[in-house]
Amino acid sequence: MSRPGPPFRSAWPYRALGAALLLALLGAWEWGARHSGLSALVLPAPSAIAASLWQGLRTGYFLPHARATLSALLLGLAGGGLAGLAIGIALAESPLLERVLRPYVVVSQVVPKLALAPLFVLWFGFGIPSTALITGLICFFPLMENTFTGLQQADAQRLQLFRMLGATRWQTLVRLKLPQALPAILAGLRMAVVLALVGAVVGEFIGASQGLGAVVIAAQGMMDTALMFAALVLIAAVGLLLYQATLWLERWLLRPYADRS
Amino acid sequence: MDAMAGAAQLAGDAFLDIDQAVFAYPGRAPVVDGVSWRIAAGEVHCLVGRSGCGKTTLLQLAAGLLRPQTGHVRMQGREVVAPGPQLGFMFQAPTLLEWRTALDNVLLPVSLQRRPQPADVARAQALLDQLGLGGHAQRHPRQLSGGQQSRVALARALVLEPALLLLDEPFAALDAITRAELQDDLLRTCRQRGTTVLFVTHDITEAVYLGDRIAVLQAGRVADDIRVDLPAPRTQAMRHDAPFNRLCARVRASLDGAGA
User: Fold this and answer.
1) Which of A62, A157, B171, B188 has the largest CB neighbor count within 10 A?
2) Does domain A67-215 have CATH number 1.10.3720.10?
3) pLDDT tens digits, A40-69
4) Per the CB < 8 Å rule, is B99 touching A259?
């Protein structure tokens, strides 16, 4: 007997089932919130959260906050990601640098970066510079590590081929090692994107008066739990969008690497 | 004295001249232990031997990837110091770049030196056409079969029109029928261009089919030198004839140590 195949060929029935499950869960939550006697301070009903979300979007209240979070996130991702790529290449290409710098890099990653947030606030003040810096520090490591590992895995025969063809060191790096490491580097980027959102939001808890993380803290202060949930929904949406965008980028860049007959 | 004079004269004729070459990795016994071998221009020579007999090291010496500790490797009378465009190389695996098209892969030796000109592209395309891959030029290696990938690698090795082609068991991973096709492709293409070929293999029938001469290598030394007097061009039907099988038996006996 062969294993039964998937019951549906197209993806739509699965999506419909997923949506139905979501609706059922939201319905149960709504019912529970209304009938359990729990205070809306503890668990607001989904309808209250939706109303708060809608109002925030309609009045434009969320707009500057979402912009601040995205700016910090993208700045940090770009800065930390590029630094990670550059240092990863430097460490992979120079055994001397690797020996000298590696302990520092590891130590810098062992220190919890969020614990540095108060220090950054002291140095750079409240706002985007501090949160972007924290985000950058968090994005740095996955990209550095994956770039380093990817470059180390260059295939010996292809390296010999490039040597035989008289390729320069720069050509070998740009035309062989980096393209060969691209899948690993993009996997690091995907990890960095997820971590960047965590970094930006948690950084805003401590070091910013604007941003979705700051909204969460403000809502806590105002005991507006529905607003807090609304901000969390937005944060989740931002995360999903970024993750999906990275997946698309990855699929697009890695097209030639895939088996297609 | 006569022998010395004869050798010198032979060396003058030889296109590739390996002269008493010794190579050892540090702290180990020599892998290549005093090999002398000459190949005349346009000839196809095969190196056969068991795994670890020094075939690949000898090929790397011929390529200039390694330098002999004593002895010489000369090409057209000049010491081989480093690999260069005068020589094409094919590895055990096709070693194509998956992210480049077949045509870009063929053009790699050119594009590492300079921007490929229309004439280079035309030459690469002609090579692919000749190897039956004309319609696959814009495909990526992962979309090609193993035999097609090997053909792209062969085209890449030939694109700079090298005078010497060195091959290190390039067809070992292919099925028998595809391998036979590629052997014919290789012979046809190299004969047409007058390319000198040194082909390393552990497959006796492949060595007899391709070679004008066969060097049997054993523990880093040439144990036997067998001239293959089969008519050219070779045809697959020859494989079933008595002379072919007699030669195979001769090489086999050499490998077993009886022919030395």
Assistant:
1) B171
2) yes
3) 788 888 888 999 999 988 998 889 999 999
4) no
